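Sequence in, structure out. Go.
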Amino acid sequence: QAKQERTRQAARQMQKEETEFDTLDPEQYLDALENGTPVEDAPPRQSHPWRRYWARMFDLLLCSPLSARLLFWMPGWKLGGFALNLIIMLVLEPALLCLFATTPGKLIFGIRVTDREGKRLSYTDALERTWSVLWDGMALGIPLLECYFEYRALQDVEDGEELPWEEDTDLTFADGKNWRWALFFALYGAMIAVPVLKLL
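Output:
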């Protein structure tokens, strides 16, 4: 992990200095790879797995009214409601990350997704990230398999490992004050309660 972090730091420096092959001075970068700042001296990587998990669940729930509208016009698709949620998520989330570096669920929990330079992701990078989350992190919602994939991702985060969709991206977290959780539960509960009350 220490070697990987030193490699990333050297690569970022080369990118920042717009190093070209013809003008490359390899000694300084080789020295950085050998004597760079060790990981234990760097600030610890933030993970907050539960804030990230519930932010995603909130975003998925937000997709439900849209899929419900579509299913009203396509009755034969009703059994594929969750699949349609995932398709809507695959379209909307990359656009939001590209434009705002966050989504409604992530905004509640103070989470921003950027590239390693702190810039917003391109739409293509954001799309690849969202697809990797749905495939590698949620198994496209396949029952039981989804639970296993989510449990595996949770273990990886708690062990400090980088998840497949986190390559070349950085997550930043605002404060984790209690009002964020209170706002989440209030909105999440309201979104669940409204359709139920309509049925009564």
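Check: Residues 37-44, 70-79 have pLDDT under 50 and may be disordered. Strands lie at 111-115, 169-173.
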